[in-house]
UniProtKB/TrEMBL annotation:
Keywords: Membrane, Transmembrane, Transmembrane helix. The chain crosses the membrane at residues 20-40, 76-95, 101-119, 140-158, 164-180. It comes from Paenibacillus mendelii. It is a multi-pass membrane protein. InterPro entries: LSM_dom_sf, MS_channel_C, MscS_beta-dom_sf, MscS_channel_2nd, YbdG. The keyword Chloroplast does not apply. Residues 182-250 form the Mechanosensitive ion channel MscS domain. Residues 331-387 form the Mechanosensitive ion channel MscS C-terminal domain. This is Mechanosensitive ion channel family protein.
Length: 417
């Protein structure tokens, strides 16, 4: 500044004019230096850093570049130059320093925010992120960063110690608790969900209270985002997964088997003892040949040992068509290539009711994919319904309009002429 004033003084200008011109020239000079420093930082230093990052064997530093952490830090250079140039203008030094320092704080906050984003992206590149998501913790760290940054900016502008402002916030703790209630509950819920291994990104969860039935695609501080199978998105509060019940299908997916639990309702009027002709036909069925032979020999031996008169079917032991049918279904499932052989396989009768006798199939498919599972289940029951008449059985069905019409036509009197 003194050099500029000396040069201007040589032109015979007044002192007031020299003061104005020297200030203008100094401002222009500082602006040129800032522009030049910013150009050097971005075009040389930043490009050198990016070149080093892209040409090393690590991948995590590429994410830092993608999140523009270094780009944001480059804005610090002009602000530092302005801050240390404030002493040139004694009348405005305090104002310039506060403005420059405020800008430095804001740039630092945005750089740290980008660094948090980069850290989260790096963490998400590892498989452990699906088991232990940290997005909620990152959001808490950002909230703390913004609060502290805001306090420091305000304290810088009003010229007060940040601790004084922090002590004043103690009186507003009740208001802060109300404002950040969801964030606090979400943080607590996130810790419990993570520590108890309750839900991961990618899990299929079912929560009827929120009409959620689909895959978890994101876990944040306040919400768990679920993409339902109809492609709609349901947002569930994080703390709701702690306070309410939900079903997680991860165990089924990890086991490699998906349960089939469905009943065929048999008309009880079609259940009967097996005749000799029926037994001969059943012995021709591949899955029943060995069973029928063994059971017939066992029953005959039992009846002969006790000298039971088998001319009447109610005496002694007899095969029934429903029993043989149940064994057939069991053998059919045991030999089915899509049924899991190491999991529970039961074909059982349930209590009969108004809809007939329920014959329940309880088994597990060896493919947990939804579409494949439904196809397997449909194929099994297609076969069961189609094969039931072979055993003299009828599936129960409530009368329809067609059944009533047929009954009416069969009983209608047609006069003869």
């Amino acid at each position: 500044m003194g050099f500029i004033k000396d040069q201007l003084d040589g032109y015979g200008m007044s002192e007031q004019t020299i003061g104005y011109l020297s200030n203008i020239i100094m401002v222009v000079w500082i602006a040129v230096v800032c522009i030049l420093a910013n150009f050097i930082t971005k075009k040389i230093v930043l490009k050198t850093i990016i070149h080093i990052v892209h040409n090393n064997r690590y991948t995590w530093d590429n994410i830092i570049v993608e999140k523009k952490v270094f780009h944001k830090l480059s804005h610090l250079v002009p602000a530092i130059i302005i801050y240390y140039s404030a002493s040139i203008f004694p009348a405005y030094q305090t104002l310039i320093e506060k403005a420059a320092l405020t800008y430095l704080i804001i740039v630092t906050i945005t750089a740290l925010n980008a660094l948090f984003n980069a850290f989260e992206a790096i963490y998400r590149s590892f498989e452990v992120s699906k088991i232990r998501p940290i997005k909620g913790y990152i959001q808490v760290a950002k909230i703390v960063l913004f609060i502290i940054g805001g306090i420091v900016v305000i304290s810088n502008l009003i010229g007060q110690n940040p601790l004084i402002i922090l002590s004043g916030l103690g009186a507003l703790s009740a208001v802060l608790m109300l404002v950040f209630k969801d964030s606090i509950l979400g943080l607590v819920a996130g810790v419990q969900l993570s520590s108890n291994d309750m839900v991961h990104v990618g899990d299929w969860i079912e929560m009827p209270k929120y009409n959620a039935d689909g895959d978890v695609i994101d876990i944040t501080l306040n919400t768990v985002k679920v993409m339902n199978f109809d492609k709609t998105i349901t947002m569930i509060p994080s703390y709701a997964l702690i306070s309410d019940s939900f079903k997680n299908w991860r165990g089924m997916q990890a086991s490699g088997g998906r349960r089939i639990k469905r009943s065929v309702y048999i008309d009880t009027n079609s259940i009967s003892f097996c005749t000799e002709k029926m037994i001969e036909e059943f012995q021709k069925i591949h899955y029943l040949t060995e069973y029928i032979t063994t059971r017939v020999d066992e029953i005959n031996a039992y009846n002969m040992e006790r000298q039971i008169n088998t001319e009447i079917k109610v005496n002694g032991r007899q095969l029934t068509n429903i029993g043989v049918f149940r064994m057939y279904i069991h053998q059919y499932l045991r030999n089915h290539p899509k049924i899991h052989k190491d999991m529970t396989l039961i074909v059982r009768q349930l209590a009969p009711g108004d809809n007939g006798l329920p014959l329940e199939i309880y088994a597990f498919s060896n493919d947990t994919n939804w579409g494949v599972y439904e196809s397997i289940q449909a194929d099994i029951f297609d076969h069961i319904f189609a094969v039931a008449p072979t055993f003299g059985l009828r599936a129960f069905q409530n009368p329809t309009g067609h059944d009533i019409t047929r009954l009416k036509e069969s009983t209608e009197y047609v006069p003869e002429y």
